[in-house]
Amino acid sequence: LTAMGEPSMDPTISSPDSSAQQDSLFSMMDVFLISLITGLFTYWFFFRKKKEEVPDLPKMQSVAAPVRDSSFIEKMKKTGRNIVVFYGSQTGTAEEFANRLSKDAHRYGLRGMAADPEEYDLSDLSRLSEIDKSLAVFCMATYGEGDPTDNAQDFYDWLQEADADLSGLRFAVFGLGNKTYEHFNAMGKYVDKRLEELGAQRVFELGLGDDDGNLEEDFITWREQFWPAVCEHFGVEATGEESSIRQYELVVHTDVNMNKVYTGEMGRLKSYENQKPPFDAKNPFLAQVTENRKLNEGGERHLMHLELDISNSKIRYESGDHVAVYPANDSSLVNQIGEILGTDLDTVMSLNNLDEESNKKHPFPCPTSYRTALTYYLDITNPPRTNVLYELAQYATDAGEQERLRKMASSAAEGKALYLSWVVEARRNILAILQDMPSLRPPIDHLCELLPRLQARYYSIASSSKVHPNSIHICAVTVEYETKTGRLNKGVATNWLKNKVPDQNGSSSLVPMYVRKSQFRLPFKPSTPVIMIGPGTGVAPFIGFIQERAWLKQQGKEVGETVLYYGCRREHEDYLYREELARFQKEGVLTQLHVAFSRDQAEKVYVQHLLKKNKENIWKLLNEGMAHIYVCGDARNMARDVQNTFYEIVSEFGNMSQPQAVDYVKKLMTKGRYSLDVWS
């Protein structure tokens, strides 16, 4: 140790003082070196321990647990199920059908489970043959222009890429679609075709439900032939058990902490009090209504423009996207249901799934009150489906009423006709049915179990985020009509929005919302011409498009021709955004504005008539300018008529036959040059 200090010492110094100084220095050096070595050893010791512990992390095993749980095969084995019904659902109907099919299974000595494909690994389909008498059923809705629903997107992607051998899989598909749309039941057809390509065995033919007709009847007709086919395939027989089976049990909370009770939240408890991004369907943002003005000058209808403040939400949107809003049912309807059933609506309760293995613990967020459930969670305004009538029939004390309910829920032709006329065409909702059947008084908890979920309503955004980054604009018309029974039915969302008056501090002007991305997009190059066709509230996304084109022009970009074909009933009654459109035209952004007033003259004039009138210009923009076409509004008539008009224009000026013209327009759609944002 001394040798280490020696080089720093002067060899000529040898006095007692210098000797003492040397002793003192050695002592200090010793302390320093010992401390250093101790420190290094301690560091090494702990570092070494860390290194040793790294491979032995007990928590690593818990990370793998959800992967095991995502196997529907293991779950089916564990719970003794042999039929799995997957659903691709956007509005809840496909999920409802899947639940009904899974409940049916017990009548044939089988056990079923409904499953959300988003929650499971669908590559496990190849293992389903490990389970005796196994079957996979797919209730697949088609969304938008032939797209899968949000929860079936991963399944769709997997099907496209999969090279799995599904030769041991037995399957059946029921598709939910709407014939007014171009790609009717595209998702159901694709799943059915693709599963067969991968070697799976079809047990029963593809069912195609049409929401433009009678979706419920289509489903019942398919279902009544589906089960006999399943019985024949597996060699089983119906057990004859037609009894009602409850899926949930009621628990009434007499002594509950109200901070643990849901008051309308869609997902996380207290999420409306403590808002946290990102915002989506399960975590909507509470947006303040900053403007709510009537757009039309006259007429019976109420057309409105609303502005939702999304400041500090981190919500981003593009022109053409949709805003989804969660409405609330009319309190007077809720109160009437409570009165008829003699229920204290403020009772706090939970409906707990009797199947403890189910991923769905409750039909809606629980615990909550009956009032909250009927206001925010349940659909009480649409005519109930036949399964609801079937389950409710047992509670009718009058034999005639009970028979009537059972008949409407049956698959007999007479029963279907009665359901169609008495429920669907008469637009009888659950309240009207209870009013018109005095002996029908079901327990409110069973009614809450049976009613479908109240769904979000989608609106095409009527603004551009380039111009309005902190607000989203909505254009809507209130729905109100008299039914065949003389009742006044009101649209849930539009009448609820109508009453959302801008308010400085109250909650009365708050709207739970989120943004859903769409494919309805302006061309990448601003110089590309656009032809927009949007009568009525179909003009909404084009207000956003024109705002964006104006902004691009202000930025010095070259902006191509911007052409709008708009239509309304009367010029001085319901000409929406008249001043804004006139200003855009004056500024030179809106290069052509063609307006059809359908009822201002003896003969009705619609947007397609104006397209024909300007057919030469349309063809020039389409053929030479490579214009993009956008159609927004009614799918049943307008969108179809407009498309037929384009066939005519293309055929005439492109010197094509009708089939060639149809093919030309279809190719425009494939290339993203003919886009639709339509509803029926």
Produce the secondary structure layout.
Layout: H1 2-5, H2 16-53, H3 60-69, H4 72-79, E1 83-88, H5 93-104, E2 112-115, E3 135-143, E4 147-148, H6 153-161, E5 170-177, H7 186-197, E6 201-202, E7 207-210, H8 215-234, E8 248-252, E9 285-294, E10 303-309, E11 322-325, H9 331-340, E12 348-353, E13 368-369, H10 370-377, H11 386-393, H12 399-408, H13 413-425, H14 430-436, H15 444-450, E14 457-460, E15 471-477, E16 480-482, E17 488-490, H16 492-498, E18 510-516, E19 530-533, H17 540-554, E20 562-568, H18 578-586, E21 592-597, H19 607-613, H20 615-623, E22 628-634, H21 635-653, H22 658-670, E23 674-679
Helix pairs in contact: 11-12, 12-13, 19-21, 21-22
Structure write-up:
The structure is a single chain. The chain is α/β, with parallel strands linked by helices and 680 residues long. The protein has four domains: 72-234, Flavodoxin domain (Rossmann fold); 276-327 and 456-518, Beta Barrel (Elongation Factor Tu (Ef-tu), domain 3); 329-454, Up-down Bundle (NADPH-cytochrome p450 Reductase, Chain A, domain 3); 530-678, Nucleotide-binding domain of ferredoxin-NADP reductase (FNR) module (Rossmann fold), CATH 3.40.50. It is 38% helix and 18% strand. The chain contains 22 helices and 23 strands. Strands 1, 2, 3, 4, 5, 6 and 7 form a seven-stranded mixed sheet that branches. A six-stranded antiparallel sheet has the order 14-11-18-9-10-15, with helices on one face. Strand 16 and strand 17 (488-490) form a beta hairpin. Its cofactor is FAD; FMN. One of its GO terms (molecular function) is NADPH-hemoprotein reductase activity.
